[in-house]
Design goal:
The structure is a homodimer of 215-residue chains. With 215 residues, the first copy, chain A, is mostly helical. Helices cover 67% and strands 0% of the residues of chain A. Chain A contains 10 helices and no strands. Chain A has helices at 20-45, 52-58, 63-69, 73-96, 102-116, 120-127, 135-161, 170-182, 184-187, 196-209. The longest helix of chain A is centred in the last third of the chain and has 27 residues, at 135-161. The termini of chain A are far apart. Chain A binds chain B through residues 44-46, 48-49, 103, 106, 129, 131-132, 156, 159, 163-166, 168-169, 172-173, 175-184, 186-187, 199, 202-203, 206-214, and chain B through 44-46, 48-49, 103, 106, 129, 131-132, 156, 159, 163-166, 168-169, 172-173, 175-184, 186-187, 199, 202-203, 206-214. The structure holds a DNA duplex (30 and 30 nucleotides).
Chain lengths: 215, 215
DNA sequence: TATTTTATCTACTGGTGAGTATATTGATTG
DNA sequence: CAATCAATATACTCACCAGTAGATAAAATA
């Protein structure tokens, strides 16, 4: 019998030879980096004014490399918007299945909603107008936004039923809340002194409490 | 003495020979028509996606005719935005010098504010991002918006002082109100069943009253 | 009536930006 | 090792659009 030779097991040394899954991960990371650079450019300049050449330059690559990872400019935007929508969707699901009164669950959701709207991808959801999308994408976009809105309305309705929310017009209440909490997507400066969490808390308090004295 | 001949006085008949002031009016009307067509195109497609060729086509004229009335594309946008801002400014001045409690004056202003935001030029104020303007125009734009915001804050402050408004954080209250009432600029359909006035009343009630029961 | 001014057009220039053709290099696989 | 595949680049094409040149014709003015 041959003397067994100690085989060095795969040590946690970073080898220059990447496995298949590592290569897939690399690819996914690069794709993600493209989306992040793109969403920032879109948010800063607007979709039409942001060129893929500029996005590529901000990553130190060339435009065709972007096309290697994503089909076309609209797909880049759609993926960005979808990331934002997914965050909102998750927040809605979490709030819907949480315990507490309608008001409490709504409030929890709104805090998260406001924070997402100050994040790169969340901002993009707010700032993207349907007119810039193809008909198909616009329909899907609208449908996903409606899901979020439906969840908000459901929470408001439940709050009215359990007495934790005043008997308001549910449709307009959801519009008013959405407006108040979407607006920071346009003015909040991530580099400024106010954290998204702080802004979210202040705005949610005012949006839910109103300005009329509760004697 | 010669028999005096009855001189036909300038009858209210529309003559094809226009006086100087009539010609000036014609010119002003045409300029205004260009602005209205442009603002609608900007609102429908976004500034960058709306070409002056298309604006001209919508009026049955050619692009150089637009340049005969306005200097360049940015000036067209700036004039549209200024019309919207002037409406808001007037509303603010009227509210500031009206009688009543801080709450009453704020409410009157907000109703008008919301309606303006559903008008062609008002929408344009909301939908125009500073990034699309030249540095100079952006500065002026921001200054004029700040004036409106300052008026809102003043009314809130007065309302807090006279007890008609709860002691909220004035800055965030003005952001929340602005957001709630700006948002219809993005979703309200002028051709839909709800008049701007109706939408404004519902939204202002909810924005001021909040969702918490006032037992 | 001659000259100037106003309103408008057609036809262009120049720049920008989406998307593509194709080459290159290095790694992967048979 | 040969053939293939992945990642990237350079250098294009094509369309669109802001803005301009210059012509024309009608009206206003001198």
């Amino acid at each position: 019998m041959s003397k067994s030779v100690a085989i060095t097991p795969a040590l946690p040394l970073t080898s220059p030879f990447r496995s298949k899954s590592e290569r897939e991960q690399d690819r996914a990371d690069k794709r993600e980096a493209v989306l992040l650079a793109a969403v920032r450019m879109f948010n800063a300049r607007g979709y039409h004014a942001a060129s893929l050449d500029d996005v590529a330059a901000s990553l130190g690559i060339s435009k065709p490399t972007i096309y290697h990872y994503l089909g076309n400019k609209e797909q880049v935007l759609v993926e960005c918007v979808n990331r934002g929508l997914s965050m909102l969707r998750e927040a809605a699901d979490a709030a819907m299945s949480a315990p507490g009164s309608g008001h409490d669950r709504l409030r929890a959701f709104l805090l998260r909603y406001a924070c997402v709207n100050m994040d790169d991808f969340g901002r993009c959801v707010i700032r993207t107008n349907e007119e810039v999308l193809s008909m198909d994408s616009a329909i899907r976009f609208r449908a996903r936004k409606r899901e979020i809105d439906a969840a908000v309305r459901e929470m408001i309705t439940e709050g009215i039923a359990d007495g934790s929310i005043a008997p308001v017009d549910v449709r307009f209440a959801s519009f008013a809340l959405a407006g108040a909490l979407n607006w920071p997507a346009r003015w909040h400066d991530p580099a400024g002194p106010l954290s998204p969490q702080q802004v979210a808390e202040k705005l949610v308090d005012i949006a839910l409490g109103g300005l009329i004295p509760h004697n």
